[in-house]
Design goal:
mainly alpha
Length: about 325
């Protein structure tokens, strides 16, 4: 077992994110922290998008930003106007259709594994106008990063091994479990302060392959706890704006450089960045608000438990019963 097996580093992505974050850091420290941290959130889609070898292909950075922004906006729309029943039914539909699309001949699991959870995360945004602002920030951040990426020289690219075609039947069989878990998490989430934390956790952890879900479950909890500990240390230290903005920007650079790692450590960086943003805009950058950090751990853990029940435990019992019959 080697570190290289689970962790990878992409210098091009890290450098692009670092350069893109410089003006954001300056705005945060010299103009307004809330605006600067909001712009940093806007850079997240660009940070987790791999730079294409050709300049023409780098429009993918902008496309990814638009897709994530739209997904978050849909989640905010559901939370603001659809109510618990409408949002639950809608999330169930997204979950089921994305799983069935993954099971189709030309379908891909990206909608199931990424888009649906991001829509769920958007449920944490209780004000639709705030969702619009965050979405626009993401599109703007992706546009800036895309333009900067054009200055990077083109490369030949690395030839990838032929993709292994996934067993489409697995996705079809998994659809009811995935749908039920997402809907249950949505119902529970509506009674919590941050609906998206538990819904997003379920969607980002559940996988049809047992070993993969087990690994993602462990890494997600460990990563979130680590991110919470780090942000709490900053809160205890009464750090100034330069440290707060600089640390958040460096977390984004680390997220960008490691986003292709097999180890699921992205929640560490996202937890730190998002909480830095929340604490700044609410003027709560002090240790008295530890309860908010504790909620993050509890709701994420609850999502992992729901994912375990519907993604691992129930399927195992059903398969065992079928084997006996």
């Amino acid at each position: 077992m080697t570190i290289q097996k689970y962790f990878s580093w992409n210098w091009s992505n890290a450098v692009l994110t670092f350069i893109s974050a410089i003006p954001v850091f300056l705005i945060a420290t010299l103009v307004d922290m809330s605006i600067g941290m909001g712009m940093l959130i806007g850079l997240i889609p660009a940070a987790i998008t791999k730079i294409a070898p050709t300049r023409r292909g780098r429009v993918s950075i902008l496309i990814m930003g638009a897709v994530i922004a739209l997904s978050v906006l849909i989640g905010a729309l559901l939370k603001s106007y659809f109510g618990i029943v409408g949002a639950t039914v809608s999330m169930g539909a997204f979950a089921y259709l994305s799983a069935m699309f993954a099971a189709s001949k030309k379908g891909v699991p990206a909608f199931m594994f990424f888009i649906t959870p991001v829509i769920g995360i958007g449920l944490s945004i209780t004000d639709f106008q705030a969702g619009v602002s965050i979405g626009l920030s993401m599109v703007l951040g992706s546009t800036v990063a895309c333009m900067i990426s054009l200055f990077f020289k083109e490369t030949k690219g690395v030839k990838k091994a032929p993709a292994v075609n996934p067993n489409k039947v697995i996705f079809k069989q998994y659809a009811p479990y995935f749908t039920t878990a997402i809907m249950l998490a949505t119902v529970i989430g509506f009674y919590l302060d941050h609906t998206g934390w538990i819904v997003g956790s379920v969607g980002l952890v559940m996988r049809p392959v047992r070993e993969m879900q087990e690994m993602r479950s462990v890494f997600r909890i460990v990563s979130v706890v680590t991110g919470i500990v780090l942000i709490y240390i900053v809160m205890l230290s009464n750090a100034g704006n330069i440290i707060i903005a600089g640390a958040a920007a460096m977390m984004l650079v680390l997220a960008s450089g490691t986003h292709e790692s097999k180890a699921y450590i992205m929640p560490l960086f996202m937890t730190y960045i998002v909480f830095s943003f929340m604490m700044v805009i609410n003027n709560e950058m002090n240790a008295t608000h530890w309860w908010l950090l504790a909620e993050r751990i509890l709701w994420v853990s609850a999502g992992v438990v729901i994912a375990y029940v519907f993604g691992l435990l129930i399927p195992k019992l059903v398969n065992k019963k079928k084997a006996v019959e």
